[in-house]
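Fig. S4 source data, part A: sequence.
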Amino acid sequence: MAIGIGINLDYVRHADKDFEYGARRAAELGYEYVEPCVSTGRDLLAEAGYYHMLSMEDDPLAYKELLHECGLKVSGLSAHSPLMKPEVAVPYLTQAIRWAADIGAPVVNTDEGPRGPWIENDEEAFDIMRYTLKRVLPVAERHGVYIGLEPHQIYTTKLDTYLRLLDLVPSPMLKANFDAGNAFLAGNDPVEYLQAVADRVVHFHAKDISIEQEEAERGKVTGTPVGCACGDGVIDWPAVIRVLREAGFDGVLSVECGTEEQAERSIAYLKQVLAEA
């Protein structure tokens, strides 16, 4: 099956660059796909051109035209909103799904979010998340856009509760956006964890973790915004690719790194691994 290589626009966040710069630079580096981050409302830094976040109040077709000009496609939208806060997640995700359909993104990526102190126990948390998913999944089904749940918080980084979440509401549009780096930092073997959910994966965050970050954070956190360059860290990428191919995955490896230089090294390394696998 074909596996594409894309990049999350967070790679230009610390450079204070806007979306257009990040997209054009990704194309220059040889990426086929980008994963935009979207928000409701307006962001002052983004409006000033210092941040890559896209407002869903803008016209998605304008960005689709820009990406077409660059020879790029959208692998998915990063639209993280906490499933345990339905007052946030329901309007955010329903708008993101409609926006994704217009820009041509097959999946909207999110997670369960932190569990607030007003939630007394796991059963209450899952009841709230079921409500959120029951509200947004019909929208996803109508628009043909997946919701990709990412390992990022307390429930998605434990296999039993991740599987429970993926089965919480019966829908063909509820899938996994797997993140190798987050799974590793939470204390899992990322290859074994991937094997358990590989048939549900529709989008993949290619996030590597440096040895320094492993020593400082593994077992203490459930995720991190970006990692190091793919191939520079601890993730066994040949094994990851093997598991994905055996599962018939034909989606995109969306690199999550912190700099343009890491982005350049990541695509060179992943192309090599895909060619040799």
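Fig. S4 source data, part B ends here. Residues 4-276 form a domain with the TIM Barrel fold (CATH 3.20.20.150).
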